[in-house]
Amino acid sequence: AAAGAKSNARTASVGLATGASSTVEIEVTAQNGVTKAVYVMEVTRSLISSNARLTNVVLAGEVSRLNCAGECLEMWPLVTEPLMNPEAALREYRVTVASSLMKARVQPVPNGLRYKSMKVTVDADSSVQDITSTGITTLFTLAGNQDTAYINAAASTTNFTISLLAEDGVTLETYKLSIVRPAASTDASLTMMYTENTAFSALYGHMVPAFAGRNASLGVYTNM
């Protein structure tokens, strides 16, 4: 029990003050009733956190694939522009993803372990998702082309608002995140071509062929 309080029960309640330490002594008596051992434990109850900052954002994205049945999700940390810094005052970030990314789940990474609530809003339709318990949103459809046979034809942007309320229930930080899908590449040039027999290359559009024999397997490297 805590200093000044004793209990012969197997369990005992100990009052803990916020931000303070309490010393708990546990005395164990062996079955013979003579041998005793005393254990001293110091318990510190941490202060209520006012940290409502984000460290990073992770994205689970569904990429356009013709041979994909159902959801084709890939998860990776986002490289924001500029880089997200929990100590910085900046609260607006953008990230550029592949034009083939059609849908995404947003997973903010809080800087602190404890927080009261976390919500994500899609600005396009003002829909709000409370992700306090899950930590990740459901699948959002990103702006732009959604045909699995084609990637994004024109650049498009989807804006998110992430609201993180600290454990103290007072400190609130709001982040703006823009996910940009660029237009599909129009580059159809080759950087190199080769055969199993004799190599030849095409650098910057200038091809230097040197075939040998009637049959050859051909490998192609594109410039994309």
Question: What does this protein structure show overall?
Answer:
This protein has strands spanning 21-29, 36-44, 54-63, 73-77, 92-96, 101-110, 115-122, 127-130, 140-141, 156-166, 172-181, 190-195, 201-203, 206-208, 218-222. It is mainly beta. A hairpin with a 5-residue loop joins strand 10 and strand 11. The N and C termini lie far apart (69 Å). Residues 195-216 have low confidence and may be disordered.
Task: Record keyword descriptors for this entry.
mainly beta, 224 residues, elongated, 15 strands, five-stranded mixed beta sheet, four-stranded antiparallel beta sheet, 0% helix
TL;DR of this structure?
This protein has strands at residues 21-29, 36-44, 54-63, 73-77, 92-96, 101-110, 115-122, 127-130, 140-141, 156-166, 172-181, 190-195, 201-203, 206-208, 218-222.
SSE layout and pairing:
Elements: E1 21-29, E2 36-44, E3 54-63, E4 73-77, E5 92-96, E6 101-110, E7 115-122, E8 127-130, E9 140-141, E10 156-166, E11 172-181, E12 190-195, E13 201-203, E14 206-208, E15 218-222
Uncertain segments: 195-216
Helix-strand makeup class: mainly beta
Average residue pLDDT = 76
Spatial order of the strands forming the largest sheet: 5-11-10-7-8
Major beta-sheet overview: 5 strands, mixed
Helix content: under 10%
Number of helices: 0
The gyration radius over C-alpha positions equals: 29 Å
Order of helices and strands: EEEEEEEEEEEEEEE
- Give the overall form: elongated
Please report the total strand number as a whole number.
15
User: Could you give the distance between the termini?
Assistant: 69 Å
β-sheet strand percentage: 35-45%
